[in-house]
Amino acid sequence: MGRTLAEKVWDDHVVRRAEGEPDLLFIDLHLLHEVTSPQAFDGLRLAGRKVRRTDLTIATEDHNTPTLDIDKPIADPVSRVQLETLRANCAEFGVRLHSLGDVEQGVVHVVGPQLGLTQPGTTVVCGDSHTSTHGAFGALAFGIGTSQVEHVLATQTLPMDRPKTMAITVEGDLPEGVTAKDLILAVIAKIGTGGGQGYVLEYRGSAIRALSMEARMTVCNMSIEAGARAGMIAPDETTFAYLQGRDHAPTGEDWDAAVAYWKTLATDEDAVFDAEVFIDAASLSPFVTWGTNPGQGAPLGANVPDPASFEDPQERIAAENALTYMGLTAGTPLREVKVDAVFVGSCTNGRIEDLRAAAAIVEGRRIADGVRMLVVPGSVRVALQAIEEGLDKVFTAAGAEWRHAGCSMCLGMNPDQLAPGERCASTSNRNFEGRQGKGGRTHLVSPQVAAATAVLGHLASPADLSDVQQLVEA
Amino acid sequence: MEKFTSHTGRAVPLRRSNVDTDQIIPAHWLKKVTRNGFEDGLFEAWRRDDAFVLNRPERQGATVLIAGPEFGTGSSREHAVWALQNYGFKAVISSRFADIFRGNSLKNGLLTVILPQETVERLWELVEADPQAEVTVDLEAREVRAEGVTASFALDENVRWRLLNGLDDISITLQQEADIASYEAARPSFKPTTTPVG
């Protein structure tokens, strides 16, 4: 019987297999950041251990980093200590680090791919649940806890139970204005926040093959929001074209050997998935969340749902709690929900394509009075590219704030936070209570919806802008 | 890791589904660089409400958390496990746990027990009616016991063996050095390294 993409990558990384034990998997790439690594390095020190493969390990600063005044000392002393701890640990153990101010600094899941380190058929781990992003390249990539970070640092392996496989097949063409973000939000709403538990998801079908690498990363990024540790897409010409010429992509004969191997990875025709989900691309539309978990989403054209409409009692209670927290009334059209803030950025939607898409919508317009729009590039490289294209000027001319790279308001570990009760349309990945700041209310959206929402002041899609005349005076 | 064999204690009924790790320990607590001192951050936002179950006087000193489905969704932060342990919890019972949280809990000796939702409901009713009711989580017998409830649970045998003996994963893996070295020697040359280029 044939094998799936996930099974092939898994099998190629088994260091040891024994009856009654988890497989011991080799890890090709270990990404580190300041938040989930300090206790792991402490563990190494206590046991007198080294980092086994510094040449397969790389660190960046992202979660805590300020997006303003980055040339000044970090104001929050606790954040500063955490970043200084990462710097000291990387120096002591010999790990390559891209610190604040470095041209390769940025959100860990933006940095790996843009350096060409994330490659098809590799295993990638990081102490961050959005490591699933790297699956866009056909890598088996998953988030791990700090104990596992320490384990990988010490051994370059992880004992893991073989996951089940689920195919998410999306056939057809996405309608105009419908993006990868809308697609993944619809997938999560369909299978639920626990639907992918125990599975590796493989996104396939013509709608997935038509996506750019950046859009594929958006899709795989949010696999964890459906409960799956990893999501993957088979590598193809789009993948190879993205990688060729990047700093760490293979060259010469190695490139040819790599591509030959990568072409063998796609799921065999006779392979069997443990579960399958089908989605008709043509049925999708711009999607937004109304609740406090990413599965609580609906098409933008829908109304805030009535909790009584949920059959499952747990879901009904969850919907009631969510509407209370979100300050929403059942039956309100989602398009009438007014926002105070808009956040464009994060490992989900902080890449150059995302910034281009948002800029194209705000260009020549003004963001609505009373709305604060933050644009935070996913990495310094993304920021430099955007500046070269003049996107920073487009955003600032429209009244948005152009910031430095980092995780920023996705989780508000730095000063970029919502005030209690503030409502935000956010291109990030989690709408949990308090995620973007204590008492803050988050609606997850695509960059296009975020930009249109900023202009109109309420949840909106670019199509709603057609009759708006808010042109900036020359 | 401390050994886990069996634990008996009073319980906290948490009637919520999708309790995400941002609720268990909010992000601003993640700036700490230690594994301890997270107890005050546990469910920080909800604890501002005096009526929240953890604030009730009769729940003080409880050591078993009984939660709704999809407990521990979201971020991979192991701080969520440390916060529960720092506060005093020894075991969490739910019908479904998020994968990463579950893995983290079992690596730290916080026993996460999966029981059917009907059993969770019965335990909720029992401990809500009688806050002094004790719940036993017995790893040796793979059983949860409380007044009128005896429920067996499944757990991977290898995980159970490590918990019962308090074994450290890294030292077990380091015994496989020969296998790791031979795998490394056979890796293709096109695989990437992080060694700076140029």
Automatic annotation (TrEMBL), chain A:
Its EC number is 4.2.1.33. Gene3D superfamilies: Aconitase, domain 3. [4Fe-4S] cluster binds at residues 347, 407, 410. Signal peptide: none annotated. It catalyses: (2R,3S)-3-isopropylmalate = (2S)-2-isopropylmalate. Binds 1 [4Fe-4S] cluster per subunit. It is an enzyme of class 4 (lyase). GO terms for molecular function: 3-isopropylmalate dehydratase activity; 4 iron, 4 sulfur cluster binding; metal ion binding. Keywords: 4Fe-4S, Amino-acid biosynthesis, Branched-chain amino acid biosynthesis, Iron, Iron-sulfur, Leucine biosynthesis, Lyase, Metal-binding. One of its GO terms (biological process) is L-leucine biosynthetic process. InterPro entries: 3-IsopropMal_deHydase_lsu (IPR004430), Acnase/IPM_dHydase_lsu_aba_1/3 (IPR015931), Acoase/IPM_deHydtase_lsu_aba (IPR001030), Aconitase_4Fe-4S_BS (IPR018136), Aconitase_4Fe-4S_dom (IPR036008), IPM_dehydratase_rel_enz (IPR050067), IPMI_cat (IPR033941). SUPFAM superfamilies: Aconitase iron-sulfur domain (SSF53732). Residues 7-457 form the Aconitase/3-isopropylmalate dehydratase large subunit alpha/beta/alpha domain. Pfam families: Aconitase. Pathway: Amino-acid biosynthesis; L-leucine biosynthesis; L-leucine from 3-methyl-2-oxobutanoate: step 2/4. Transmembrane segments: none annotated. Its cofactor is [4Fe-4S] cluster. Catalyzes the isomerization between 2-isopropylmalate and 3-isopropylmalate, via the formation of 2-isopropylmaleate. Heterodimer of LeuC and LeuD. Belongs to the aconitase/IPM isomerase family. LeuC type 1 subfamily. NCBIfam families: leuC, PRK05478.1, PRK12466.1. This is 3-isopropylmalate dehydratase large subunit. It comes from Streptacidiphilus jiangxiensis. The gene is leuC.
UniProtKB/TrEMBL annotation, chain B:
It catalyses: (2R,3S)-3-isopropylmalate = (2S)-2-isopropylmalate. Transmembrane segments: none annotated. SUPFAM superfamilies: LeuD/IlvD-like (SSF52016). GO terms for molecular function: 3-isopropylmalate dehydratase activity. Coiled coil: none annotated. This is 3-isopropylmalate dehydratase small subunit. Pathway: Amino-acid biosynthesis; L-leucine biosynthesis; L-leucine from 3-methyl-2-oxobutanoate: step 2/4. Keywords: Amino-acid biosynthesis, Branched-chain amino acid biosynthesis, Leucine biosynthesis, Lyase. The keyword Lyase applies. It comes from the Bacteria. Catalyzes the isomerization between 2-isopropylmalate and 3-isopropylmalate, via the formation of 2-isopropylmaleate. Heterodimer of LeuC and LeuD. One of its GO terms (cellular component) is 3-isopropylmalate dehydratase complex. The keyword Amino-acid biosynthesis applies. It comes from Streptacidiphilus jiangxiensis.
